[in-house]
Amino acid sequence: MPVDFGKEVDYVARLARLALEPEEKTRLAGQLSDILETARRIQELDTAGVEPTSHVTELPALLREDKVRPSLPLNRVLQNVPQREKGFVKVPQITSPELEQEK
Amino acid sequence: MQLYEHTAFELSRMLQSGEVSSVEVVRSFLERIDEVDPHLKAFITQTPVTALDTAGEIDNRRMRGEVLHPLAGVPVAVKDNISTIDLRTTCASRILEDYIPPFDATAAAAIKSAGMPILGKTNLDEFAMGSSTENSAFFPTRNPWDPELVPGGSSGGSVVAVATGMAPLALGSDTGGSIRQPASLCGVTGLRPTYGRVSRYGLIAFASSLDQIGVVSLNAVDSALLMNLIAGYDPLDSTSLPDAVPDYTAGLEPGLNGLRVGVIRYSSTKGFDPEVTETVQKAASLLEEHGAEVGEVSLSLTDYGLSAYYLIAPSEASSNLGRYDGIRYGFSADGGNIEAMFSRTRGEGFGPEVKRRIMIGTYALSAGYYDAYYLKAMKVRTLIRREYEEAFKKYDVLLGAASPTPAFKIGEKADDPLQMYLSDVCNITDSLAGVPSLAVPGGFHSSGLPLGLQLTARPLQEHLLLKTARFFEENRKQAPLRPSLDYVEGGKRQQ
């Protein structure tokens, strides 16, 4: 069964926070349909009762002692921040009347 | 013979005996880079000044009689998705074009503490997503055997640097074949260690359950030397393995008596060049002649493995790459509300292949599709692991091809992502199973291009791969070992 990705592109791009040009959307819809059709072949395999593998190491979850340790100085942590002010990271406004209206 | 023509092992010997200085060695490689790199474009960033500084410091310490690491003074190239403090690390992406890491990856720190001068950061497919190094946001890297061809990918820059004497050793990373496939296409040795054997701390994440740092080298001994340095437990990577690290250079002496080798019979060899299959058969006969017990092993899930991989890796990528939002680091688009700013930053900052994978992954993880795609793929991964466990009950090493074809033309598969994904078909199931896997030169195609063999072993059995690779090196009859680079000597620059 072919996967029709055309209708899904806008929805998935929104979930992924990806702004796409109209021609990118058209191209992606075709390519993703093909890729997902190939990917769907795994449906042919019987996996009843099979545990999923999310990780190949069988290590227990390791937790370190909850102790304060030295970390990077603040100027190092912030050195790549595009917009910063007085040791803070500047972000665009998150709530505003217009944003509320959009919802 | 020029210094840049030597292996890392030979350079290490020459440095330790005082026959040459590290400054002389580094100068030779830097001159070679000046001569060759404009044609092949293996490096995104070159670091001649710091390389010479490190070399000078090592020479001084050696003169003072200090005990140094065997690789001290031997230069190395580093793939540009491995973080290096105060040295731009781009992942070949516009979104990280100006990113300066505030810390070193554990593998990079190990190289520095051993006194290995870093020659520069090598090109890759953006975020290591690709099989040709054409997906670099900056420029493609070219195959030294024929500059109209791709070098493979994603570690194309590291592989080309080693193949052409621009570096004696390089670090790469392998998620679904990104060390082994380009090593095969360029005629060098590429080792993907057991998942967790080398710390991933500071390796910029693509698919965390699959990503692994590994080694590109001219031979097995050089791989062993660098593995001795970078393998081991790291408290900064909770998935790194606590097992003791052996001396990988031990046990490489000849002799295959009793080694049980399973030659992989693929469920389909559609898309395989017949000469590739022939090369694998010849290699199997050679092993048998020299005392190995050779049989056949069926890996029936290879095709399904490719499908599972192209759900699992993009799913993990879509989650890992969520961090690129233009707030904390990287490219940041102007204006608008926060969601518009995020979306524009990512839409403008990522290239086409990265967007494709984020879209596949986001779809496979989204409500209503999670069970049918992502969960199902993780169950198929379990079936693949079981198939390997069965194979390793009978065999110590599995032998197959490292790539279904020799190198292909630049642009040939650029508009057909499915065809591009198929070029990793030999490499992907080893990655899903988390087992160590190595590509070693196996011979030449009638076109004159190198063909690689792939060797696979149980977890933590890297020494068996290195020993078998060494066997093939010593029985190599076909020349040349290095590409001729006529086009470089002719002085004609590629565009």
Would you write up a description of this structure?
- The complex is a heterodimer of chains A (103) and B (495).
- By secondary structure, chain A is mostly helical.
- Chain A has a domain at 9-44: Histone, subunit A (Orthogonal Bundle).
- In chain A, 34% of the residues lie in helices and 4% in strands.
- Chain A is flat.
- Chain A starts with 8 loop residues before the first helix and ends with a helix.
- Chain B is built from 16 helices and 11 strands.
- Classes of the chains: A mainly alpha (103), B alpha/beta (495).
- At the A-B interface, helix 1 and helix 2 of A face helix 9, helix 10, helix 11, helix 12 and helix 13 of B.
Count, helices of chain B = 16
Judged by helices, strands and strand pairing, the structural class of chain B is alpha/beta
CATH topology of one domain in chain B: Amidase signature (AS) enzymes
Q: Main interface pair? A: A-B, 56 and 70 residues
In sequence order, what are the helices and strands of chain B, one letter per element?
HHEHEHEHEHEEHEHEHHHHEHHEEHH
Beta-strand fraction estimate of chain A: under 5%
Name given to the CATH architecture of one domain in chain A: Orthogonal Bundle
Unreliable stretches covering 5 or more consecutive residues of chain B: 491-495
- Helical percentage of chain A: 25-40%
Shape of chain B: globular
Largest sheet of chain B: 11 strands, mixed
Mind telling me the C-alpha Rg of chain B? Answer: 21 Å
* Number of alpha- plus pi-helical segments of chain A: 4
The assigned CATH architecture of one domain in chain B is Alpha-Beta Complex
Instruction: Work out the number of β strands of chain B.
Output: 11
The major pleated sheet of chain A works out as: 2 strands, antiparallel
Order of helices and strands of chain A: HHHEEH
Beta-strand content estimate of chain B? 5-15%
